[in-house]
Amino acid sequence: MHIVGITGGIGSGKSTICKVFEHLGIPVFNADERGKFLLQDSKEVRERVKSMFGDAAYDAKGILDPKYLANVVFKDQEKLKQLNEIIHPAVRKDFLAWKENLKAVPYLIKEAAILIESGSNKDCNTIIVVSADEELRISRVVERDKVKVEQVKSRVEQQLNEKEREGYADYIIDNNGKNLLLPQILKIHEDLISKAGKRS
After folding, report:
1. For 120-171, how does the pLDDT look when each residue is reduced to its tens digit (9 = 90+)?
2. Which of 108, 114, 123 lies closest to 192, judged by CA?
3. pTM for this one?
């Protein structure tokens, strides 16, 4: 099955674009959302997180404290690496199980903020990068998540810059607000459908 990876910096608009692909009938696996789900619902992941970061990562009812975890890992590269070593294999296993349950489709999408940094791009046949200027992305996240600029900047610093990310792209979607998204998405979709027809 043809796997298309969609990635982009925080606040680039990946999720909005993926919703359009879903409306076009393309299955989308959101790796970041599944990672959050597994942090809460996977007993194995929970136990490993507690062992690595302490019981304070979860409250008395066993609910994840994302602010605590974010404050720990986004200030310490080594701790972020340790968390990723717990989450990424679990998400990959979850993705493979999800993929096996799909019916025949021309292609599927795996959406992930750090698709390239985590090495997940190696599982993909095609890469789409959603591009937007850093200042615009930061302002979007500040508005969306009601957080401070410094908090967003610390997360941006953990990711590849735009030029590095675009170096992996087969397609680039410009989401700076100057070009309409839908024509860009439809052009890529039609191209992927055409290529799927040639493979079959």
Report:
1. 999 999 999 999 998 999 999 999 988 899 888 888 888 888 899 999 999 9
2. 108
3. 0.89
The structure tokens listed for 123 are 């599982």
Please, where are the H alpha helices in 54-148? 66-73, 77-100, 134-145
The tokens describing 7, both together, are 């990635």
Average pLDDT, the chain: 92
Q: Which two tokens stand for residue 2?
A: 């043809």
Of the candidate CATH numbers 3.30.465.10, 3.40.50.920, 3.40.50.300, 3.40.50.12280, the domain formed by 33-101 belongs to 3.40.50.300
Rounded distance between C-alpha atoms, residue 123 and residue 125, angstroms = 7
Q: Are strands 3-8 and 126-131 parallel, antiparallel or unpaired?
A: parallel
Report d(CA 109, CA 28) in Å as an integer.
Answer: 5
